[in-house]
Specification:
Layout (H helix, E strand, L loop, with lengths): L8 H6 L5 E5 L6 H11 L6 E3 L18 H13 L2 E6 L2 H9 L4 E4 L1 H4 L2 H11 L5 E5 L6 H13 L5 E5 L16 H10 L5 E3 L1 H5 L5 H10 L4 E5 L17 H10 L8 H44 L6 H17 L4 H23 L2
Parallel strand pairs: 1-2, 1-8, 2-3, 3-4, 4-5, 5-6, 6-7, 7-8
Length: 360
């Protein structure tokens, strides 16, 4: 994939004046449901109507999609609304059926991307297709695995490629369903700036009230589009009810998003500056998360010192840390003065936490 510009043609040819939008229900439930949502979205910014036909679920016994019958409903969507259609494929049988029903855009889910065997099977089934194929990031934060899946498709002479950033699984409890790990998406863009990158705020957040903020961050980071799950009755959806929005809310989100366009050198500067600032915002939030975790560990040390009746300040340990961090900081282009000030502040906050525990 040395020349990723070849893979951008399909998005350039669309000549959109807004980000690419893929929207529709998490799962196709009934023909009536699919068509109702499609008709409510047809006069909007939505470019592709999506619906899950086969739903890979974490545990058996959950709703796993209506199957091939749903492809007929997608065909009706195209006939009645003129919108192009999209669905997820996870194996050769899915690919064959989707192509047979003329689905315009296929995406490969996070659970499939983790397996080189599945990716190769899908690549072989799609070889030479002119359909658009998007690859979601794997469930674990592994950039090489993500890129490897795309490369398998590219090697199979599939040129209309792109990627979907849907966040990554974590054992930690966070405000996200899947943590964004924005730095991985940024690195992805740096490696392949001309490969279309779509953000999936529905799966990142797991909550409809967070979708706007994540979408705005994605656009500030120069993502090319959004995939947002949309249902006319989200609370009663058969899958992922909490993360779906109504068509009315989706239209409002698209109106409220700040979309920066390139028109002249001054606006180019503003756009690039906004992108860099968005990257700093992401990193700043990561710093706060890490510092929060560090202080929780300090609380644990404080509890242990209280139990053993040990003094808070351990000078030998502190000097060892400081010397090591100064050297580590220098290797990363940070001045000794800055590292000293930063770690003294961190150390003082850690002492404060431990004293609260000991004197509690």
């Amino acid at each position: 994939m040395e020349n990723s510009k070849q893979m951008r043609t399909w998005l350039d040819d669309m000549k959109l004046d807004h980000p690419l939008v893929i929207a529709g229900p998490c799962s196709a439930e009934t023909e009536e449901q699919v068509l109702k949502i499609a008709h409510e979205l047809k006069d909007s910014d939505v470019n592709y109507f999506r619906a899950g036909i086969w739903k890979p679920r974490t545990r058996p016994g959950m709703f796993e999609g209506v199957g091939a019958i749903g492809l007929k409903w997608l065909k009706k969507v195209k006939e009645e609304t003129g919108m192009k259609t999209a669905t997820e494929v996870a194996n050769k049988a899915h690919v064959d059926l989707a192509l047979e029903h003329d689905v315009d855009l296929l995406w490969i889910g996070a659970r499939s991307t983790v397996s080189p065997f599945i990716m190769q099977e899908i690549a072989d089934a799609l070889e030479g297709t002119d359909k658009i194929v998007l690859v979601k990031n794997p469930i674990n934060p592994d950039l090489s695995l993500w890129l490897g899946g795309i490369e398998r498709l590219y090697t199979a002479n599939i040129k209309n490629l792109g990627a979907i950033h849907r966040g990554f699984s974590t054992y930690e409890k966070t405000k996200y369903r899947n943590i964004p790990e924005w730095q991985l998406a940024i690195e992805f863009q740096n490696r392949f700036p001309d490969l279309p990158l779509i953000n999936d705020p529905s799966h990142i957040t797991g909550k409809r009230d967070m979708i706007f903020d994540v979408s705005q961050t994605a656009l500030d980071l120069n993502f090319d589009g959004l995939m947002i799950e949309t249902h006319y009755d989200p609370d009663n959806a058969w899958s992922d009810a909490a993360q779906q929005v109504t068509p009315t809310v989706l239209k409002q989100i698209m109106r409220d998003l700040k979309i920066r366009k390139e028109t002249n050198s001054e606006e180019d500067y503003t756009k690039e500056l906004s992108n860099l600032r968005a990257q700093i915002d992401v990193i700043d939030n990561q710093l706060l998360d890490i510092l929060g975790k560090r202080m929780k560990t300090s609380d644990g040390i404080g509890a242990l010192k209280k139990k053993k009746n040990v003094a808070v300040l351990q000078s030998t340990r502190w000097n060892e840390i400081l010397g090591k961090m100064i050297l580590e900081g220098e290797s990363r282009g940070l001045s000794e003065e800055f590292v000293l000030k930063m770690f003294k502040a961190i150390h003082q906050e850690s002492i404060n936490h431990q004293e609260k525990i000991i004197n509690g």
